[in-house]
């Protein structure tokens, strides 16, 4: 049974924010097989599909994306084993606004195509340092000796700073097949390192000082034998180095070796051996005084073991069996661990009847042991994908991946899956937004900005805020906090008012930091950068044009005039003119959005990407087709969701664009040339009434990659604006555009909100989760993704934008000079409007020489308004037949001739 898990966050003023994740409740029967010391049972577990699926931006077949993974806070790394090019890479992903985006691709500086060095065979990530193993790298004349590359992050960019190799390395050692990182210490596994020419394995310890990494010890088990694969996995635990030897002894039980420092030398103190054929140590993860190790081939199902250090000795304290008792599922092939949760991958688990699809299982700590809490599966689970081959967990986020998955039919391309909001954790988790905290004020002014402190965990969070950098306390005179400490229940938030006062500051950018300290064990302190931009008090014009369109109906040969009001709501003189501006030259809204984003930033609060709630449809389906034909990408366009939006919850909407790309070849009713007459869209159940929106029509070459919308390939062919209310409302916006070649061109429609002003709420577009033939896209400069991104890659695979495109007669071109439209005239054509005043422009439509029918054009008013430099005003003209003139009557043969005859003769 599908259901939705909801987490509540309470902000200032009692606002409750809803964050949804797709979940399903699984009955208890036959689900739980985890054992605890008390034998306690668990009534049910939760099956969760991913929040976001990731692949490499340049993914290809045989890339094997997901061979290794690492996760730390808002940074993730995924390694490949690219057998197509022979040069592998590690892809860096960053989380922003709740969505993960690829931000960088890392490769060895000395790598080359065809080197088959397996760069990315293993990854260790901590803070701003990453170790990347290349266990097949050639070193000197030694093929496959292996190397490790050290990367550092500076200014958001990762760069290689060192390369590590074993001082005594030999060909085939596999140095770099396993990695661990703890502060300035690193462990490197070389599971095939030689002893007397035979592979046994070794581990190398490196320490960093002043940016230089030095090999300080080579570690071996005292009783290792040929073929043991000592160094298969490595981990730092509490005052302990742990090493697994996967193939130790006959019958492959696997072993764990424990080393402790003695007079500065790491010395073997303990060894634990697994059961026959269990492969103990296939996976390994440690957290403080606890350790989890996988034995995926024990029996027919596999297990994971939890070890605890008690009185200096490591003891097995819990045995966790496969929760679903599925035979040969490889449960425990991968593991990850936090203070209160464990994730275990089962690469051969069956999902929805798909064998070897793979899954992950989450266990959380309780008073009686470890309890089964969640099953993690891919929404597109397919046979032989083996999701969970690699796994990582950090706080409440899990990353499962597989290098043998074949997404979209791309053989062995590989894929990764993010899961968030894990259930059952028993610790607080802090989130702070926005970060950085920014504001723009005029000289002498001040601004109050809200800093939200959110408890996303499941235990009470205590926090304090100081006006200082976390490392260098120094109070900032121009910053004032309304409160500096608080306590939050799970799922709640405080909005702390921060006052930035420019009274004593000169113009320019002034920076500081706020340090948020909390009881979150994963993030005990967070530095929030603060930037106050002080600008001179420079006046600016602000244009307003009304009405928004002009409609004329005149008799043949007659004319009519209407007034266009141009008002200036700004503080500087407005210079305006009616200019020639072809449709192709209209500024695309994504460029205008940059200005809007800057304008929104002046409001002092940084917007974030937000997911709205699902709403029961009201039955208010899309209206009837307006035009000769209609095209859509969904059978049901009834709004029932509120979709995605960028803005400040409860306060305003930033710039947003929601996109669809239409392929005319899928709509045989459309001829070789098409005319767009209008677009029907809807609003969600949240947001302000009267939200201004713009519909932009573009063409894009049909040979541009399917299901992509690169804005550089777009040509604007039409634009129109309007307003829309909230509450699952539908609206048809008249907008015209022509596609001259429907075979060579596709149509792209942009549904845009400008994000200007405080709308007392966050606007969401109408959407639903019914099947769509092509994906919905979104972009938002304010939320830092300029280009349209598939909604599924923003963590919202069920956000399907409701939209109908209505086709009719081929319309006229877009904005033109009225002087170039034979039936239009205006006076004056330009002018100046002082602040607070209004200018009147008379627009005249003259039907002289026009046959009866309908005509259309656009009047475009340009100005020095920095936010709204061009305002198009659609104009329609309906020419009706004139009065019928009796030629015989007017000839003079009949008495009573009137002025009508004189007009006819003229």
Element layout with pairings:
Blueprint (H helix, E strand, L loop, with lengths): L1 E9 L5 E11 L18 E5 L2 E3 L13 E5 L2 E5 L10 E7 L2 E8 L12 E8 L2 E6 L12 E8 L2 E8 L13 E5 L2 E6 L3 E2 L2 E2 L2 E8 L2 E8 L10 E8 L2 E6 L9 E8 L2 E9 L9 E5 L2 E6 L7 E8 L2 E9 L9 E7 L3 E6 L12 E8 L2 E9 L12 E5 L2 E6 L12 E5 L10 E4 L3 E6 L3 E10 L5 E6 L12 E3 L3 E4 L4 E9 L6 E11 L6 E11 L7 E4 L3 E6 L3 E10 L5 E5 L10 H13 L6 E4 L17 E3 L12 E5 L3 E2 L2 E7 L11 E9 L8 E11 L13 E10 L5 E10 L5 E9 L13 E2 L8 E4 L4 E6 L9 E2 L2 E5 L15 E4 L2 E4 L4 E9 L6 E11 L6 E11 L6 H7 L5 H7 L1
Parallel strand pairs: 3-30, 35-42, 44-66
Antiparallel strand pairs: 1-2, 2-3, 4-33, 5-6, 6-7, 7-8, 9-10, 10-11, 11-12, 13-14, 14-17, 15-16, 17-18, 19-20, 20-21, 21-22, 23-24, 24-25, 25-26, 27-28, 28-29, 29-30, 31-32, 32-33, 34-36, 36-40, 37-39, 37-41, 38-40, 41-42, 43-45, 45-64, 46-63, 46-65, 47-49, 48-61, 49-50, 51-56, 51-58, 52-55, ...
Summarize the structure.
The protein has 906 residues and is an all-beta fold. The longest helix is centred in the middle third of the chain and has 13 residues.
